[in-house]
Specification:
By secondary structure, the protein is of the alpha/beta class. The chain contains eleven helices and 23 strands. The protein folds into three domains: 208 residues, FAD/NAD(P)-binding domain (3-Layer(bba) Sandwich), CATH 3.50.50; 116 residues, FAD/NAD(P)-binding domain; 101 residues, 2-Layer Sandwich (Enolase-like, domain 1), CATH 3.30.390.30. Strands 1, 2, 3, 4, 5, 6 and 18 form a seven-stranded mixed β-sheet that branches. The termini are far apart. Bound molecules: NADPH dihydro-nicotinamide-adenine-dinucleotide phosphate. The site of NADPH dihydro-nicotinamide-adenine-dinucleotide phosphate has 22 residues, from helix 6 and strand 19.
Length: 454
């Protein structure tokens, strides 16, 4: 007997969970299919465990660099096994909470892989035996299966880790080569280095974090050098070999790097293969599912949210897409996701945060002479008695004609907390004059945002 639902959600990550709960709150009979732990990339192998590792790295960095504040750093040791075990336990606890919250909404959870049989029917497959466990059907099906790491197609690629593997480790490696210059590569380079691992980072271009405001990239490059990360630019990984218990990476230049481990962080791709979608001939947008502004695919019964569509692949974006989908299709509330000012952070140490247009993008859109830049870079007070005098940077991008603030960028401790709040004012259409008449809160780093005049 096939079970019949009003909505089947495939993938219990941030977007899927949000959609399922919102639809159930309107009285819909909802099922959710998940092959791994409930929680998805963010909770299980992304934002949450990563941020816990970041806190460990910040704490260690502060402990060993605070002698000027009268704090002795002798005897400090870092036991990565304790940290990794605690992180795993916390992830399991959070996954349990998410599972319980589904029970509270009377959402049926099916463990296994979801596979399309028709546009309304799904088979749930046991990943171990490949056998069909159940068949369920629904008028509406939401795909929210997320992404998976994209590995480089080179000899020896299976010897390298992806970010998923990091959270399965028992201890941290002594040395690591990190390939890539995006979010994941930069965050892990910072975590590992600040917790004592020797780190080499390899990028194919000239700059870290392509697409971000170039001043942010430059600040990160300075911090990368200060932290002792060996950054190799304009080179590519050609092959990996295992030699005498170590890994040897051969680069396109012919240079070889011996290291304990290699992390490949060269982007992520939608994890659509297990779904058996081909026969449905859904319209694609490159590797992503093509959806309209209501997250509907080219098949009116099938919807998609999260990292499988070509929108910012970020947790809050997926959650909002999920909620908007359910509001629209289970409560007739026609609303759309606001993609205009999506704040972003890269949790390096110090962290990078940004909202709105970069200087480069603003000049491209509005032309150079119509853009005014306000910028300051200084040693934050918290580093006064530290040997490592890393600087922070704040920047405002303004449209000279309208005075509208187009972008705010910050490199420095707690910048993510600050930019989250700044993004409210950008969404409300704030002008530079309104920044200027706002009273400063002293002594803080963020007061510079309202006192910059040149
Ligand atoms: P990114 O897209 O951020 O970065 C990919 C990196 O890999 C870039 O430096 C890119 O170089 C490089 N690259 C791509 N292809 C190749 C190749 N063939 N050879 C060499 N280098 C290559 O991907 P990530 O994997 O870091 O992260 C995936 C996504 O996860 C992010 O886009 C983000 O949406 C999300 N994420 C968000 C986080 C946050 O919000 N803090 C944290 C972690 C992930 P180039 O610049 O030259 O193209």
């Amino acid at each position: 007997m096939e079970l019949q639902f009003d909505l089947i959600v495939i993938g219990a990550g941030s977007g899927g969970l949000a959609a399922a709960k919102r639809a159930a709150s309107y009285g819909a009979k909802v099922a959710i299919i998940e092959v791994n732990k409930v929680g998805g990339t963010c909770v299980i192998r992304g934002c949450v465990p990563k941020k816990l590792l970041v806190y460990a790295a910040i704490n260690k960095k502060n402990m060993i660099s605070s002698e000027g504040y009268g704090l002795k750093s002798e005897g400090i040791s870092f036991q990565s096994d304790i940290l990794l075990k605690n992180v795993r336990e916390e992830v399991s606890r959070l996954s349990g909470l998410h599972k319980n919250s589904l029970d509270k909404f009377n959402i049926s959870i099916f463990e296994g892989l979801g596979r399309f049989k028709s546009q309304n029917e799904l088979e749930i497959i046991c990943p171990k035996t490949n056998k069909i466990i159940k068949k369920i059907s629904s008028e509406k099906i939401l795909i929210s299966v997320g992404g998976k790491p994209k590995k480089l197609d080179i000899p020896g690629k299976d010897l390298a880790w992806t970010s998923d593997d990091i959270f399965e480790l028992d201890i941290f490696p002594k040395s690591i080569l990190i390939v890539g210059g995006g979010y994941i590569a930069c965050e892990f380079a910072s975590i590992f280095r600040n917790l004592g691992t020797e780190v080499t980072q390899l990028i194919r271009g000239e700059k870290l974090l392509n697409g971000f405001d170039e001043d942010l990239s430059s600040c990160l490059e300075e911090a990368t050098a200060l932290a002792g990360i060996n950054l190799i630019t304009k080179n590519q990984l050609k092959s990996i070999e295992s030699i005498n218990g170590k890994l040897e990476a051969t680069l396109e230049s012919g240079n070889k790097i011996q290291t304990n481990n290699i992390l490949i962080a060269t982007g992520r791709v939608p994890n659509l293969d297990p779904l058996n979608l081909d026969f449905l001939k859904l319209k694609m947008d490159g590797p992503y599912l093509d959806v309209d502004e209501f997250n509907q695919t080219s098949n009116p019964n099938i919807f998609a949210v999260g990292d499988i569509i070509n929108k910012p692949n970020l947790t809050p974006v997926a959650i909002e897409q999920g909620r908007v989908f359910s509001d629209n299709f289970f409560n007739s509330k026609k609303r759309k996701v606001n993609y205009e000012y999506v704040p972003k952070a890269v949790f390096t140490i110090p962290e990078i945060s940004t909202v709105g247009l970069s200087e480069q993008k603003a000049k491209e859109i509005y032309s150079k002479e119509n853009i005014e830049i306000f910028k300051c870079k200084f040693t934050p007070m918290s580093n006064t008695f530290k040997e490592n005098k890393s600087k922070c940077m704040l920047k405002i991008v303004v449209n000279k004609i309208t005075d509208k603030v187009l972008g705010c960028h910050m490199f420095g401790e707690t910048s993510s907390e600050i930019i989250q709040m700044v993004s409210i004012s950008l969404n409300a259409g704030i002008t530079k004059k309104e920044f200027d008449i706002t009273m400063a809160l002293h002594p803080t780093i963020s007061e510079e945002f309202v006192t910059m005049y040149s």
